[in-house]
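Researcher: Next sequence.
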Amino acid sequence: MYSVDELQRKVNDEIQYRINELTNKEPAELYAPVKYSLGMGGKRLRPVLLLLSYNLFSEDILNAMPAAVAIEVFHNFTLLHDDIMDNAMVRRNSPTVHIKFNENNAVLSGDVMAFLSYQYLMECKSGRILEVADLFTKTAVEVCEGQQYDLDFENRLDVSADEYLNMIRLKTAVLLACGLKAGAFLANTEDNLAEQLYDFGLNLGLAFQLQDDLLDTFGEQESFGKEIGGDIVANKKTYLLIKAFENASNEQLNELNYWIKQNDTEKEDKIRAVKRIYNQLGIREIAESKKEDYFKNSENILKNLPVEDDKKKQLQMISLQMLKRNH
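Model: Next structure:
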C-alpha cells in the first residue's frame, strides 16, 4: 500500500506534468488561468482518496492516475466558478482566479477545465470506464444542483438544517464519494464494496464541510487560506447560522436579522457581532457535535469494509487529517 504522502507527491508531480503540457497551448489567455488555478496547490484530497480506494484492491496505481487528475481538475473548476459567484478575493492565500485575471477569463477557463477533466478521465484503460464516466457525470450534475441550492438559500431565512445538509451533500460530499467509488470501479472490485466506499465518502464529506464552516467562522486566516468570516458577510445559510436561528431568543433573533440586513457596514463589525451571538448560543459546540456524528459514521463504515485492516490504515489516516485540520 502507498502512503498518503507518497500519493500526494505522485499527484502533485502528475498535475505539474499536465500544467507543463498546457504551457504552449493557444490561446494563451484561455489556459493561463487554468495553469494558475492548478498551480495554487491544495491538499489534493479527492485524487488521493481515489488512488487509496484503487490501492485497496490493486497495486498498479498508474492505471488510475488519469482519473485522479480528472477529479482534481474538475474540483478546481468548481472552486473557480464558486469564487466568482461568492465574489471571493482569496483562495489558498492567493488572489482568486477572477481577481488575478478577470471574470470573463475565469468563466471561460473554468468551462475548459470541466471538459479537460473528461478528456483526462477517458485516458484510463479499464473495462469499467463507461461506468466511471457515468458516475462522474451524475456527480457533476449533483454538484451543480448543490451550488444552485446554495445560491437559492441566500434569499431565504427559513432554510432548515436538513435542507442545508442535503445541499452540502450535493455540493461537497458527493465528489469525495465519487472518487472513492471510481477508484474501486477502476480496480474492478465488487459493486457492494464500491458502494460501501461511496457511503464512507458521503459521511466523510459531510463532516469535512461542517469543519470548513467552522473554520470559516472560527479559524485563522493565515492557516485557513481564505478570508475569515466570509460566510457571515455573505449571509450564507450555514449550519451555524441555521442553528443560531433555531436556538436564539427573541432579542438575539432580532439582532441576527439586523446584521443580516447590513450589507454596507464594516465587515469586521458584522463578523464580530454574529460571532458573539454564536458564542452565547454555543453554536460552535453544536456544529462540532454534528460533525463528529458524521465522522463516526464514516469510521464505522470503513471498519466494516471487508478488506484487511492494514490496507485501510491510510484511509483512516487521511480521514483524521481532514477532520483535525486548521485549513
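Model: Residues 4-323 form a domain with the Farnesyl Diphosphate Synthase fold (CATH 1.10.600.10). The beta strands are 90-91, 94-95.
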